[in-house]
Design goal:
The protein has 742 residues and is mainly alpha-helical. The protein contains 28 helices and eight strands. Helix 19 packs across helix 23. The radius of gyration is 31 Å and the shape is globular.
Amino acid sequence: MILSALLTSAGINTVVCVVCFILYSVLRKQPSLFSVYFGQKLSHAGLKRPDPLCFERFVPSPSWILKAWESTDEEIHAAGGLDALVFDRTIVFSIRIFSIAASICLFLVLPLNYFGQDVAHELVPGDSLEIFTIENVKEGSQWLWAHCLALYVISFSTCILLYFEFKYITKMRLAYISSSVSNPSYFTVLVRGVPWSEEEAYSELVAKFFTSYYSSSYLSHQIIYRSGVVQKLVTDAEKFYRMLKSTPQRHGRLLRCGICGGTSASFRILTSDSSSESDQESSDFVSHFRDQECAAALVFFRTRYAASVASQGIKSPNPMLWVTDLAPEPRDMYWSNIYVPYRLLWIRKIIILVASFFFVAFFLVPVSLTQGLVHLDKLQHAFPFLKGSLKRKLVVQLVTGYLPSVVLILFSYMVPPIMMLFSTMEGSISRSGRKKSACVKILYFMIWNVFFAQTISGSVIDGWSAIAQLGKNLRDLPNLLATAVPTTATFFITYVMTSGWASLFCELMQPFGILCNLFYRYILSNKDESTYGTMTFPYHTEFPRILLLALLGYTCSILAPLILLPLLVYFALAYIVYRNQILNVYATKYQTGGLYWIIVHKATIFSLVLTQIIALGVFGLKKSTVASGFTFPLIICTLLFNEYCRQRFHPVFRNNPAQILVDMDRKDEQEGRMKEIYHKVTSAYCQFRRSSSVTLGNPHPLKEQNSMFREVEDDGNPGAFKADMPGSWNGHTHLEIEELGK
């Protein structure tokens, strides 16, 4: 790629960014778009602003930049939770490390690369960008020690900063655990793989098992039902309600309509002569619920520590039975996956693994296409009819400098929904877990297809042969990467600008939110902003993008230092944009408690080790034994640092510390809050939620005694049954039961 093509790409992306910035500064002031750009504040405080038709509404202003810049970590944590703070700290960490890398590489490594061949240069736009890479350094050059020194500075700086960030995030996670006093998930264990029995229902088996083996700490349980039969349950509930409604009252009282002052939904008082008939119908309805039980339950314990202990280890000689995990938070439960039989999950994972492999193989086609656009000489050799159209200078600059990264980005938009589907099919029990699993899959996918496949392929013609040859002999991978990365680094520079800069302002503009807002307002004629809904932060797409660009920055820092300039611009813009989005746009409904930092740590260590391996190969190809000899110990030191972090910090992110849980339990017992906590815990999880109109029975059907009805005394008739409802029927005839997680 020539320098003019890079400047063309930079100019196009800069214009796009400036235009989006101006549009956003104007659109965010329009009252009709408050639900798009201030959804987070609307969901908490019901933000209302006047609608004056004034000139100020149409004048761009950078005030939001200052507000995002001045916001503190405490404000980010309060608005988006610990996951949002982890994301923000990831960007801060990237800014710090690449500022250090740019300081040493741009002023020390870049001049050595440029003058590496001891020839005169004329800096004109027609120069090839390869003269700024390590490829321009001659073999056996004594100046390669500078590249090795820069690699040492980057590696040690990364490890030191990573250690302090890890320590800070760990401290915040411990504070998050300690502050979640009323979190019901700390008292709740999700049990799957309950064994089937002909004599007893699942609920009875769960009660018997935990009463026998956890008698001192077991509180109660809630069985899980197959959500595929929700509509059937609704139909049965409607029939039962109509039965109660249509039967005339006894004791001489007439059934009055709502217009005459009575209620058309009065209950019939069951007497001795009618109780047997109603008892039979009630029993049939309850037995229908019991038939829909699945081999999973939520078990509640008396203390947090007891629940933590019960969630660990195997419970029976058969590890596929009585499988326990700490339950997610109520709003985080993904009910549709909980009733999936546990014995089928390993089959699903194998199917997803095979499907992911074929999806990666399919994606190699656009990857090879983009590299074919970068290497026009090979493309013209393969397709001679393109030689005429590719002789124009402007066309060449657009095709080589801007079009390849655009093509790759367009194909990349199909990756997140597919990976989210794969994560759902794997059987994740929580929404945050599903999003975290999709984040890992997207990260692996992008690292392979954007970095490895893009580097190895080279062109449409020799891409598949190179990959096939690599599969035969993986020992050639370091040498292959050492040869290919310096030549591919010029494409990565344009990719950072196109995928980074433009995506940030697309995130800022929220085009999908604007389209949804227009659809609600002008197609559905719904101007109630409270019904539009708020979005949650897309961690599964933004973390992989941040970590992928960081990988490109690490691997190209000493090979092609020019990439550090657009990369620093990207992270500086990301710091402002994402802080603004966390504070104003995205609402926090559930979170992982900082578990994304483990992904960040692993990806950073992987990027650092990969950079060192590539540098080791490059130094070997350049026949610099000194640089190669000093690089190998650096790899060992990085791996040892990673092992230390795994032993020191990772356990806190896998399990909640027993000391903190016991202290919280003792404090609650001393202050007499346990009875109140028990009531909240046992009523927090609701598989079927009520709508605003009418809900039949307790929101937790068949809870504890597995019965939707309880025996009460009503008008002196101790044999009567009535629905356990906090509210009245209000004369409704349509019953609505909605399932959480759909």
